[in-house]
Amino acid sequence: MRNITIAIDGFSSTGKSTLAKQLAKELAYVYVDTGAMYRAVAFFAMNNNFIKTDFFDKKALIDSLPKIQLEFKYNADLGFAEMYLNGENVEKQIRTIEVSNFVSKVAEVSEVRSKLVEQQQEMGTNKAIVMDGRDIGTVVFPTAELKIFMTASAETRAQRRFDELQQKGDNVSYEDVLKNVVERDYIDTHREDSPLVIADDAIEIDNSYLNREEQFNAVLELVNEVVKTV
After folding, report:
1. What was the pLDDT predicted at 66?
2. Which of 51, 148, 152, 221 has its CA 20 to 30 A from that of 26?
3. What does the alpha-carbon distance between residue 212 and residue 206 come to, in Å, rounded to a whole number?
C-alpha cells in the first residue's frame, strides 16, 4: 500500500488538528500542525514587543526570523508532538486567545510564510504525512493525493473554541471568541500572500453537525478510496 500526502485546510476552529491527529495515528503517518508553527512565531513576536493591539513592527520580526528555531517533539504521554520554540516547550502558551488575536496578522507576512512553507515542504518529502493549516493543499503540497477543506458556521466554531478555552481555565467570553473567529476568517481569506481558498480538487466537509467520530470515519473512507487508486 503506497503512502500518500494528506492536506487538510479550512477555517479556524473547525477541528482540523483533531482530525489530522486521528488520521496520523490510524495510518501511522507523521502529523504536522502548521498552525502551531505560525502561533509560535506570533508568540515570539509578542514576547519581543513586535506586535500589540495597535502596533506591529513587521521589519523587526522579519529581521529576527533567523533567530527563530521551530521544532516538533513527540510526547509519548500525550500521543502527539508538541511545539518547541528555540528549545522551549510552548505548546500551552501558543493556544491562548491572546496569541489567537495576533496569529493571522503574523501569518500575513510573506517572509514568515516563506520560511515556514519551506520547512513544511521538507517535512513532507517522503510522504506518509498528514498536515493541516490554511494553504497546505494550495501552496505547501499542491500535488497532495488527498485534500480536505473543513468548514462550519462562525457561531459553531466560536462555541467549540470557547468551550475548549473554558476547560483549560482561561477567562474569556463567548463574544470575544466569536469576534476573534470572524476577524481571523477575514484576514485569512483576504491576505495577499496565500489566502485561504478551497483547492480545485479539495473535498469540502461542513462539520457543523458532525461529531468527531462521524467526521473521522467519513474522511478515513476517503483515504482508503484514494490509497486504492495511487
Report:
1. 96
2. 152
3. 12
Is residue 226 assigned to a domain?
A: no
Indicate which CATH number applies to the domain containing 204.
3.40.50.300
Answer for the pair 136, 9: CB distance below 8 angstroms, yes or no: yes
* Residue-wise pLDDT tens digits, 137-196: 999 999 999 999 999 999 999 999 999 999 989 889 999 999 999 999 999 999 999 999
CA distance 33 to 14: 14
48-67 confidence digits (pLDDT tens):
999 999 999 999 999 999 99
Task: Give 93's contacts (C-beta < 8 A, 6+ positions apart).
Answer: 43, 99
Q: Which residues fall in the annotated binding site?
A: 10-18
CA distance 171 to 180: 15
Quote the cell numbers at residue 223.
483515504
Counted domains in the chain: 1
pLDDT at 80 (0 to 100): 81
Q: How far apart are CA 85 and CA 123, in angstroms?
A: 17
Q: Output the known binding site for ATP.
A: 10-18
